[in-house]
Amino acid sequence: MKYLLLLFVVIHLPTFCNAQANTKKRVIILSDIEADPDDTQSFIRLFLYSNEIDIKGMVATTSCWLQDKINPASIRKLVKAYGDVHPNLLIHDKEYPSAATLNALIKDGLPKYGMTGVGPGMDSEGSDWIIKVLEEKDDRPLWISVWGGVNTLAQSLYKIKNTKSAKEAKKMISKLRVYTISDQDDSGIWIRNNFPDVFYIVTPGDEYSQATWTGINSFVKGIDNTSISNDWLAQNIQQNHGPLGANYPDVAWGVEGDTPAFLSLIPNGLNIAEHPELGGWGGRYELYKPDFSKTKDGGSIVTIAPETRPIWTNAIDSYTPHVPKEYGRTVRPDSITFTGYKETLWRWRDDFQNDFAARMDWSIMSFEEANHPPIPKLTHSEEFTVKSGDRFVLDAFDSTDPDGDNLSFLWFQYLEIGSYKKKINMGADNVHIVNLTAPEVSKKETLHFIVKVSDKGTPVLTRYKRVKVTVLPK
Q1: Secondary structure element (H or E) that encloses residue 176, with its range
Q2: What letter does residue 276 receive in the DSSP assignment?
Q3: At what angle do helices 349-362 and 72-92 cross, to 10 degrees?
Q4: Do 85 and 233 belong together in one domain?
Q5: In this structure, is residue 54 part of a structural domain?
Q6: CA-CA distance, 213 to 263, in Å (whole number)?
Q7: Are residues 26 and 138 in contact, defined by beta-carbon separation less than 8 angstroms?
Q8: Whether 270 and 173 share a structural domain
Q9: For FRET with 384, which of 65, 86, 168, 315 sits at 20 to 30 Å CA-CA?
Q10: Is 100 found in the same domain as 195?
Q11: pLDDT digits (tens, 9 = 90+) for 354-411
Q12: How does residue 324 score in pLDDT terms, banded at 50, 70 and 90?
């Protein structure tokens, strides 16, 4: 069944051009802020991307770690810090919303844990707000980025089911896209069981060591983990970076454990949020029903129960990092390959950490002092068809940089998302153009390539382009 579902997803993929249309993604945040410092960390990063993500609400909620209290005042404190740097952010992009706009989006969830806060008489400012946004005349999906418990959304769904016509409820629910940082209360499994059509990304259960999202802060033996070190955070985020940096707390459990729930909404040329199976900054996920017998109970109060329908959950990548060389070709594949589900996320970690650091600079620096991301551009279509044995090129020659920085290129084949599972010889992969030969195939196959375009500014910033090549038999 898993493979049939994946086949359905692949067959029904939109073209990359349509999927990556630069329309801001709508999102509502559900946060158990103050249960762990990482919510505060994630809000600071989120606000720095509020020029490119359409924040529609921020709801203070409970979780298994904070069961009977909510802390909206903590979000307001961070919005105030954002307001202090807002004039400087506008120098870099006029799309940054005002602090007043963000303040109006802060809502209260119910200070009750999980399913004790779902049912008759359990409406809250937050649950009604989700319904109000769903009722807006806006065809864009509404992402619910869940950093704590999800019972506020559960109550919204309960009310929709009991107050709307079946047709209206179906239309509203079809707009929902949920990415939740594991299960932090018992209402997540209730939603998945009772609303089988809801698009839901989650590593089920409470055993965080099994979760893809932990790739953001996992120490990985064999790679450079500097970009999640306390020293890196102090130098690039916390100190001498204005009011937002001053409010960025030290790590208690793991740095920014909630951030993956919105990373894939950032338009960077790689992220295609509607298609988690293609991979992106928030990790890669596939649609299937997990094997409950392999789900470990981590011993917390969150009930682990068998999934009754397919969900977007852990996928596996095999990833070989490129490492710098002092002489000759500037990079080479490392001697070690990593395989697992966390790899789908941490493989991009240095890129999104550098991007965060640059935006912290935006809050205090002039346009000329700060770095801005390059603009990749292909000389050909993002999708094309060739036949076995044909020569073809991949070329990002037309890429530019707004600061006039020198650009580096790295082309690679993303094996896991193409139907053809053998490696293509890329030759010198660190140039703007690569010349390739289509493999011999007996049936139609797809190859997926990505180019990373990085500048040489400080910090180094990266953007991407995807190319899908269909190969037909001769």
Answers
A1: strand 176-180
A2: G
A3: 80
A4: yes
A5: yes
A6: 10
A7: yes
A8: yes
A9: 315
A10: yes
A11: 999 999 999 999 999 999 999 999 999 999 999 999 999 999 999 999 999 999 999 9
A12: very high
Cross-strand partners of 387? 472
Query: How many angstroms separate the CA atoms of 205 and 258, rounded?
Result: 16
Element (H, E) at 261: helix 260-263
Claim to verify: residue 181 and residue 309 sit in the same structural domain: yes
Kindly state whether residues 288 and 422 are assigned to the same domain.
no
Do 21 and 120 lie in one domain? The reply is yes
CB 105 within 8 A of CB 56: yes
Note the pLDDT tens digit of each residue in 6-61: 433 443 444 444 344 459 999 999 999 999 999 999 999 999 999 999 999 999 99
Domain limits for position 77: 2-314
Residue 367, Cα to own-chain centre: how many angstroms? Answer: 27
Cα–Cα dist 156/172, whole Å: 11
Intra-chain end-to-end CA distance of the chain, in Å:
32
- Residue 330 lies inside a defined structural domain of this protein: no
- CATH number, residue 183: 3.90.245.10
Residue type, 402: P
What CATH number is associated with residue 432? 2.60.40.10
> DSSP alpha helices (H): ranges in 55-165?
72-92, 99-103, 125-135, 151-163
Lowest mean pLDDT among 21-30, 225-234, 256-265: 21-30
**Beta strands 383-387; 462-472: pairing state:** parallel
Name the CA radius of gyration of the chain, rounded: 22
C-alpha 169/C-alpha 173 separation (Å) is: 6
Check residues 4 and 250 and name the one with the higher pLDDT: 250
- Give residue 302's identity as a one-letter amino acid code: V
Write out the two tokens for 240.
Answer: 């001498």
Same-domain status, 242 and 379: no
Q: What is the pLDDT of residue 1?
A: 42
pLDDT digits (tens, 9 = 90+) for 437-453: 999 999 999 999 999 99
Q: Which two tokens stand for residue 43?
A: 């809000």
Could you tell me if 105 and 179 lie in one domain?
yes
CA 38 to each of CA 41, 54, 58, 86: distance values in angstroms, whole numbers, following the listed order: 5, 21, 15, 22
Final residue of a domain: which of 299, 314, 329? 314
Residue 358 lies in a domain: no
Domain end, chosen from 271, 293, 314, is at 314
Q: How far apart are CA 323 and CA 121, in angstroms?
A: 57
User: Vertex 141, ends 53 and 127: CA angle to 5°?
Assistant: 90
Question: 337 lies in a domain?
Answer: no
The share of the chain scoring above pLDDT 70, in percent, equals 93
